[in-house]
Amino acid sequence: MPELPEVETVRRGLSALVIDKKVIGVDVIYPKIIVGDPSEFKEQVSGRTISAIDRRGKYLLFRFSADLTMVSHLRMEGKYSVKDAAVPLDKHTHVVFNFDDGTQLRYNDVRKFGRMQLVETGMEKMLPSLQKLGPEPTPETFDAQAFYQALHRRKKAVKTALLDQTLVVGLGNIYVDEVLWQTKIHPETKCANITEQQALVLHDNIILELERAIAAHGTTVFTFTDANSHSGSFQNQLNVYGKKGEPCPRCQTPIQKIVVGQRGTHFCPHCQQVI
DNA sequence: ATCTGTGTTCGTTA
DNA sequence: ATAACGAACACAGA
C-alpha cells in the first residue's frame, strides 16, 4: 500500500529520527529481505552514518557515509520504526540497525515482500528496477505532452499502464482509481484511445492528487503508518477506492468494483465510460 | 477448514 | 518490444 505519498511521508518522518546517527551493527533476522549476501550487508553498513534519506518513485534511498546507498522498497506492508534497544522486538521485525546512541532502526514487514539492497551511491540508477522508472509526478519533471505521446503508443488498459511505473512513478492501486475517477476515464480504456485533452487533464490530476495525499500524510487503508506509528488521513478524501455500492460523489450512481489486470478496481459506471 | 482477497514488483511465457 | 500472468508471503474474514 505504500504508494508515493506514503513513501514520502515515511521518508520525511524517518529523516528527522535517524539522520546523523551512526550504525554500529546490523541484525538480519530474515535474510531474504536482503538482496545479496547478508553478512556482507552487515559488514558494509556497520560503522557508517546515515547522512540523508532520498526517494525515487516508491523506493527509499538511505545515504550512508562514504558513498554507500541502501535502496529499500516497502512493497505492501514494509514499515520502519525507531525504538530504544530495550523495547522488545515485534514478531515481524526482520532487520535491525543498531545505532551508537542505544536506539535502533527496525524494519517490520508482515508479508516479507520488502527488499533492501546496497549499491555505491549514484549507481542505484543502474539497477534495472530503477532504470525503467518514468518521471517523478511534479510539474518540473512530468511533461504533459510527452505523457500523451507515450500513452498513445500503448495498447493496454490505462489503469494497468499507470501502475507499471514507466509512464510516471508513484501511483498504486488506490490513487490510480482516484485519478481516473477525477478525470472521468474508465479504467479499462485502452491507452491509445485516450484523447490529448483527457491525457492533459489526467496529467494534472496525477500531480495534484499525489500532492494532496502527501499533504495529508498519506492514506491509511489496512495498515499504513509512518515512522512514528502515525496514520495518514487521506482516506477521508477518497472518492471511489473501497466505496463499492456507495453513491458517486458527483452523480450518486453506485460505485462498482471490477477486476482489471488482476487488481480490484473501483469506478463510477456513469461518469467513467469506456471509449 | 479451506478459500479468497489484499498490493507491488519481478521473472517467465507468449 | 510489449503484454499477460503467476510467484513471492501472511493473515483476516467468510
TrEMBL record:
Q: What is this protein called?
A: Formamidopyrimidine-DNA glycosylase
What does the note accompanying the cofactor annotation read? Binds 1 zinc ion per subunit.
Q: SMART domains from the entry?
A: Fapy_DNA_glyco, H2TH
Q: Which residues form the FPG-type domain?
A: 239-273
- The UniProt record lists the Formamidopyrimidine-DNA glycosylase catalytic domain at 2-114
UniProt cross-references to Pfam families, sorted A to Z: Fapy_DNA_glyco, H2TH, zf-FPG_IleRS
Report the active site residues: 2-3, 58, 263
Q: Which family does it belong to?
A: Belongs to the FPG family.
Q: Where are the transmembrane segments?
A: none
PANTHER family, per database record: FORMAMIDOPYRIMIDINE-DNA GLYCOSYLASE
The coding gene here is nei
The cofactors required by this protein are: Zn(2+)
Q: What does this protein do?
A: Involved in base excision repair of DNA damaged by oxidation or by mutagenic agents. Acts as DNA glycosylase that recognizes and removes damaged bases. Has a preference for oxidized purines, such as 7,8-dihydro-8-oxoguanine (8-oxoG). Has AP (apurinic/apyrimidinic) lyase activity and introduces nicks in the DNA strand. Cleaves the DNA backbone by beta-delta elimination to generate a single-strand break at the site of the removed base with both 3'- and 5'-phosphates.
What organism, scientifically named, is this protein from? Ligilactobacillus salitolerans
* Subunit details: Monomer.
Q: Which GO terms describe its molecular function?
A: 8-oxo-7,8-dihydroguanine DNA N-glycosylase activity; class I DNA-(apurinic or apyrimidinic site) endonuclease activity; damaged DNA binding; double-stranded DNA binding; zinc ion binding
